[in-house]
Design a protein that fits this description.
This protein is α/β, with parallel strands linked by helices. The protein has two domains: 93 residues, Urease, subunit C, domain 1 (Roll); 292 residues, Metal-dependent hydrolases (TIM Barrel, Alpha-Beta Barrel). Helix content is 34%, strand content 23%. The chain is built from twelve helices and 16 strands. The strands form two sheets. It has an eight-stranded mixed β-sheet, with helices on one face. Helix 5 runs parallel beside helix 6. The relative contact order is 0.16. The model has no long low-confidence stretch (mean pLDDT 96). The structure holds zinc ion. The site of zinc ion (ZN) has 5 residues, from loops.
Length: 401
C-alpha cells in the first residue's frame, strides 16, 4: 500500500484553509487540520491556493512541434491550403506522433492539466499511424493523464474516399469519440458527412465532437443539421460542437434560438476563445445551462506559432474574449477549464472533495481570479494522488524524450 500524502496549510479554491490527506489516488480527508501519522509524506503548502486539476477540452496532441526546431510560419493561407500543407510537412519534418504527443502531455502536466480531450487526424495519407502514436502516449501516461481521443477527419470525409472506413477502424481500436469537420465548408456535402459521422456514433455507441468553423448563416445551417440528428437519434448529452463561430454572429435572435435548442438537447460547446473570430458567449451559455469548455487547440504546430499548453492562460484568454472583469466572471472563465470541461468529458469523480480522484494544482496567489490573470508557475501538481510536477517542472518519471 502506498504511503499517505498529507498536504498541510493550503486554501481550497481560494477560501477555506485546510489540510488534505491523499491515499490510493483519492482524496481521503479534507479538514481544517489533519494530524500527521508516522508514515505520512508531508508537504507544507505555506498557504498556497489549491485548484482542481485543469482540463484541456480541445487540443491536437498529434500536431504539436513542441521540442522541435522552430518552424517558420507563412501568412495568408486558406483553410484548405493549411490542411494540405500540414499533411505534407508531417513527412518533411519527420514528425512522430508518439514522441510529439508525449512532449505535449508532459508539458501539460507541468502546467497542472490532468485531463485532455485530443482530436487526432485520421486521413487516407497517414491511415491510423497518428492515432496509434497518440494511443501509445495515452497508455504510457494512463496513471496520471486522462486522455480522450477523437477520431478526427481533418482532411475531410466525403472528399477523401476511405476516411470513413479508417475512422470506423480507429473507433474499434480504442478511439473514444467520433469527430467531424465543417460539413459544408470542407466536404461541401453536409448531409453526406453528418450521416456518416452520426452513423459511426450509432454503430459504436460513442459520442460526437465536431469542429464547426463555418461562420454566420452557413455555420448556423450546419449546426441545425447537427441538432436535427441529435434529436432524431436521441443523442442528448453526447454531442459537442467545437468552435461554433456561427454562435458569435451578429444576428442575435438567430443565435438566441440556436442556443435555446442547444440547451434543450443538452449539447455541449468547446471554445478556444480566439481573438480573431466571433465566438459563443460564455455568459449566454451559462444562463441556459449549456456546458462550455475551453481548449488550447493546436499548440505550436504547422497552423500556429502560438500556444504553451497552459490552461490558466487559456482561461485568461476566455476572460479577455468575453470581456470578463468582475472576479465572479473571471472564475466563470476558470470553470471552462475545470468543472464545465469535467462535465463534458464525463469525469464523475472530479473536484476537491473526499472520495474523488486526487487531481490538484497549487499556486502561490491570493484568489482564483488572480490565478487566471497572473498565470503563476505551478508550485505543485498532483494527479491521481501522485506528485507529477513541482515548480513548473514535470518530475523526471513523467518527462518526455
Ligand atoms: Zn481543433
Amino acid at each position: 500500500m502506498t504511503k499517505r500524502l498529507l498536504l498541510k496549510n493550503l486554501r481550497l479554491m481560494g477560501d477555506t484553509s485546510a489540510d488534505i490527506a491523499i491515499e490510493s489516488g483519492r482524496f481521503l480527508q479534507i479538514a481544517p487540520s489533519i494530524a500527521p501519522q508516522p508514515d505520512d509524506i508531508i508537504e507544507d503548502c505555506e498557504g498556497a491556493l489549491a485548484l482542481s486539476g485543469l482540463i484541456d477540452g480541445h487540443t491536437h496532441l498529434d500536431k504539436t512541434l513542441w521540442g522541435m526546431d522552430w518552424h517558420p510560419h507563412a501568412q495568408g493561407k486558406s483553410l484548405q491550403q493549411m490542411i494540405d500543407t500540414e499533411r505534407a510537412l508531417r513527412h518533411e519534418l519527420d514528425m512522430d506522433a508518439k514522441r510529439q504527443s508525449a512532449r505535449q502531455v508532459a508539458l501539460s502536466l507541468s502546467q497542472g492539466t490532468t485531463a485532455i480531450r485530443s482530436h487526432v487526424d485520421i486521413d487516407t495519407d497517414h491511415g491510423l499511424r497518428l492515432f496509434e502514436g497518440v494511443a501509445e502516449t495515452r497508455a504510457h501516461y494512463a496513471d496520471v493523464m486522462q486522455i480522450e481521443i477523437v477520431a478526427f477527419p481533418q482532411s475531410g470525409m466525403m472528399i477523401r474516399e476511405g476516411t470513413t472506413e479508417l475512422m470506423d477502424q480507429a473507433l474499434s481500436d480504442g478511439a473514444d469519440i467520433v469527430g467531424g469537420l465543417d460539413p459544408c465548408g470542407i466536404d461541401r456535402d453536409p448531409k453526406g458527412q453528418l450521416d456518416a459521422v452520426f452513423g459511426l456514433a450509432e454503430k459504436h455507441g460513442k459520442p460526437v465532437d465536431i469542429h464547426l468553423h463555418e461562420p454566420g448563416e452557413m455555420g448556423a445551417f450546419s449546426l441545425d443539421l447537427i441538432l436535427d440528428r441529435t434529436e432524431a437519434l436521441a443523442m442528448q448529452g453526447k454531442i459537442t460542437v467545437s468552435h461554433a463561430f456561427c454562435l458569435g454572429m451578429q444576428d442575435h435572435a438567430r443565435v438566441s434560438d440556436l442556443l435555446d435548442r442547444i440547451a434543450a438537447l443538452d449539447v455541449s460547446l468547446a471554445t478556444t476563445a480566439p481573438a480573431s473570430r466571433p465566438v459563443p458567449s460564455v455568459a449566454a451559455c451559462r444562463e441556459r445551462g449549456i456546458p462550455i469548455c475551453a481548449g488550447n487547440d493546436g499548440i505550436r504546430d504547422t497552423w500556429t506559432p502560438y500556444g504553451n499548453a497552459d490552461m490558466l492562460e487559456r482561461a485568461m484568454l476566455v476572460g479577455l474574449r468575453n470581456n470578463f472583469r468582475a472576479d465572479v466572471e473571471v472564475t466563470w472563465a476558470l470553470d471552462t477549464c475545470t468543472v464545465d470541461a469535467a462535465r463534458i468529458m464525463g469525469l464523475k469523480d472530479y473536484g476537491l472533495e473526499v472520495g474523488n480522484r486526487a487531481d490538484l494544482v497549487l499556486v502561490d496567489v491570493g484568489a482564483l481570479s488572480e490565478a487566471v490573470t497572473l498565470r503563476p508557475a505551478r508550485r505543485l501538481v498532483i494527479s491521481a494522488g501522485q506528485i507529477v510536477a513541482r515548480n513548473g517542472q514535470t518530475v523526471s518519471k513523467w518527462q518526455a524524450a
